[in-house]
Amino acid sequence: MKLHGTSKINGLNHLEIGGCDVIEIVKKYGTPLYVMDEDLIREKARRFIKSFDSVYDEVRVAYAGKAFLNLAMCKLIEEEGLYLDVVSGGELYTAIKASFPTQNILFHGNNKTEEELRMALENKVGRIVVDSFNEIYKLDALAQEYGVKADIYLRLSPGIEAHTHAYIKTGQIDSKFGFPIETGQAIEAVKAALAMDNLNLKGLHCHIGSQIQEIQPYIDAADIMLKFASKIKDRLQFEMDELDLGGGFG
């Protein structure tokens, strides 16, 4: 087993994380038990930000709440300057309870309820990631009701077959997530979003899978997304402000 961060084997031949003997932790709290290495999490967050900041002028790194989210984690990622992805009303509620700045939240999910969309609008979530035509129309109507203009991304499927388990691939053409570029649905979704009076299309999003160990699928996805952005600029005179390439790093 490869040890990371502050993890080590101590003199008693016990695993130790952050200076805490896990046997002693188990005696105190029982099992099952999640133990987080705060120093390692902070170090990883800083490495991501530093890597992108060294190349691009304006980049935002977001933590995926579905990995693990509680009040303490919300505080930690806020302190490290990360944005937050949420995929449910429960995750959004946790972030709000932690006083996480809602303008730095991206609300994902391919089957958001009306209650969740209302929650996002009421709390001024920074970006709502729209995943279907039905959601475009529903969100536009709700935004009109609230007298606001919702900032959105459209989630697209770039047709990338990432080398990972079939159950966690999300970027292929027949994925249930997003508007496929290849079938023409994506450009129709852009047209629909631009036609709405109460939606502000800020950018495009894709996510190609999880536990991906190679960089090439991300390069391919970026290339496809940027070519699509160029296409809609030419055809629809819409210039994309923001591009979200998702996560899934293995």
In a nutshell, what does this entry contain?
By secondary structure, this protein is α/β, with parallel strands linked by helices. It has helices at 22-29, 38-53, 71-79, 89-97, 114-122, 133-146, 185-195, 216-236, and strands at residues 8-9, 15-17, 20-21, 62-64, 83-86, 105-107, 127-130, 150-157, 179-180, 199-205, 242-244.
Describe this structure in words.
The protein has helices at 22-29, 38-53, 71-79, 89-97, 114-122, 133-146, 185-195, 216-236, and strands spanning 8-9, 15-17, 20-21, 62-64, 83-86, 105-107, 127-130, 150-157, 179-180, 199-205, 242-244. With 250 residues, it is of the alpha/beta class. The longest helix is centred in the last third of the chain and has 21 residues, at 216-236. It is globular, with a radius of gyration of 20 Å. The model is unreliable at 163-172 (pLDDT under 50). Strands 4, 5, 6, 7, 8, 9, 10 and 11 form an 8-stranded parallel sheet that branches. A 3-stranded antiparallel sheet has the order 1-2-3. The chain has one domain (55-244): TIM Barrel (Alpha-Beta Barrel), CATH 3.20.20.10.
